[in-house]
Amino acid sequence: MHELQATIEAGVPLAAAWGIEVLEARDGTARLRLPYRVELLRPGNTVSGPALMGLADVAMWAALLSTNQGRDNSVTSSMNVNFLSAAGPGPLIAEARIVKAGKRMLYGDILIFAEGHDRPAVHATTHWVVIAPA
Fold it and tell me: What is the mean pLDDT of residues 116-127?
């Protein structure tokens, strides 16, 4: 798990700056934690949309990395985000899974929860262009 964490922090330095932690990742799924950070809040004392979208994107990459020994150069092609309720000030848990993986495209979904809650605050779907490592 430490190698995957290091790969994510090197590939997305913002993940390290925000303190995103990989809790688990295996078989095309991943579970990440975003700690409370005052600089990620928006008016209303809830986590901002850009932070939620960033967490979702990193979570999907972790799920993808869990399928290829942490070696991947794939990139996000599109993301659709539905904000279902205020995410709270944090911490947050993101659960990502690959729904369909093809040779050239990948489709996945992500749920984000306030830690300790069972109703999702965010549901995101995403397409990635598969790029094999050089």
Answer: 96
